[in-house]
UniProtKB/TrEMBL annotation:
This is ABM domain-containing protein. PANTHER family: ABM DOMAIN-CONTAINING PROTEIN.
Length: 195
């Protein structure tokens, strides 16, 4: 099954609006054919996220272990510092709320003994979340490359503007939560070129 790559990078001496950065990211996307999207973080403007779809987890790992990795990613390494990557099974990029002006990317760490309670709370709260974020998709995924015995959920919600997403129903069902709101760098560049 295809897997979504979610990668967080920190900018190095370049502004998120610098077209050289977007050109470098677009070149990598064209080479790898991952249908990647590039997002800038609202809370921490020096962070960006890459969301890309791989045929499977092995395909991404094979690329990272290959000599082609340095050739493809090398040109952007002076602009970007790698922070982390996680993967989750995803049927298609269209399942994500990519058309939203702002996406909340949420990572939740869940202990073994709280997985069922978390899943129940999410199921119970799902309709409220879908209504609150309408007309944008809600994507709830489980990390497929977590360490044995660890569980991590990823939640992607779309918003008209940065929202303070409520997780009241899930409180106590996770060990930690990290939420970043992001905006589409390519859409912003396209809008800027039309003004």
């Amino acid at each position: 099954m295809p897997v979504l790559e979610v990668t967080q990078l920190r900018l190095r001496g370049v502004d998120v609006t610098d077209l050289r950065l977007l050109d470098a990211l677009s070149t990598v996307r064209s080479t790898l054919k991952t249908n990647s999207r590039f997002y800038a973080c609202i809370e921490e403007p020096d962070l960006i996220y890459i969301l890309g779809l791989w045929p499977d987890l092995d395909a991404h790992h094979a690329f990272l272990a290959s000599p082609a990795r340095d050739e493809v990613l090398g040109p952007q390494e002076d602009m970007l510092e790698f922070r982390w990557t996680v993967h989750a099974e995803l049927d298609a990029m269209s399942s994500l709320p990519l058309d939203a002006p702002v996406i909340a990317i949420t990572r939740l760490s869940i202990s073994d003994d709280a997985v069922d309670a978390y899943h129940g709370a999410l199921t119970e709260d799902r309709y409220t979340l879908i209504e609150a974020t309408r007309p944008f998709n809600v994507a709830h995924l489980w990390r497929c490359d977590a360490e044995p015995g660890r569980h991590e959920a990823l939640l992607f919600t779309g918003w008209e503007m940065r929202a303070s997403t409520a997780y009241a129903a899930m409180r106590g069902k996770y060990d930690s939560i990290h939420v970043h709101h992001v905006w589409n760098m390519e859409a912003a560049a396209a809008n800027k070129s039309h003004t």
